[in-house]
Design brief:
Blueprint lengths: L1 E5 L2 H4 L11 E5 L2 H53 L12 H5 L3 H34 L26
Antiparallel strand pairs: 1-2
């Protein structure tokens, strides 16, 4: 129940003398309107929860596909190169569908890491890869220990020129 009061405007502004204290009271049953408003608010809350759940699921899927998977691939390539620099990781797959989905930067990063690994393999050779592998896998925070003793390796070089 809601209490409603009413005072006529002519009594308030003083045009009619003697009715300043005239007030009409009424009680209105608003239970039906209150119940309808509660149902609408409950429905709005459920709809908002549903929309937020769907948005979260879409966002988490997009995050997984666009960010997390490419970073996992790059970390996997780096781990393979750290364990055995001579072992060639699988080259990254360039997919035309992914290029349309604005994943060009992550694919470029993956391809760059792959190319750096290939350059390390070609540039350092077999013995250099052993040194790089030891430096990358040791727990000395990536610092190269220059005071370690080296290994003696015997090699034979030959050059053949054909004219």
């Amino acid at each position: 129940m809601q209490l409603v009061t009413f005072t006529p405007g002519v009594c308030l502004d003083g045009t009619i003398v003697g009715c300043e204290y005239l007030v009409a009271y009424a009680r209105i049953n608003i239970n039906v309107a209150t119940i309808e408003e509660a149902y609408l608010q409950f429905t709005t809350t459920i709809f908002t929860c549903f929309v937020l759940t769907v948005a979260f699921m879409i966002f988490s899927h997009d995050t997984e596909v666009i960010v997390i998977r490419p970073i996992k691939k790059v970390v996997e390539i780096i781990k393979i190169l750290a364990e055995n620099p001579l072992k060639s990781p699988l080259p990254p797959q360039i997919d035309e569908k992914k290029n349309k989905n604005n994943q060009m930067k992550t694919q470029m990063l993956e391809l760059t890491i792959f190319k750096i690994g290939t350059l390390l393999q070609r540039g350092f050779g077999e013995q250099g890869c052993v040194v790089v592998s030891e430096c990358l896998t040791l727990q000395n925070e990536g610092m190269v220990d220059l005071s370690r003793s080296g290994k003696i390796t015997e090699m034979v070089f030959s050059i053949c020129r054909i004219r």
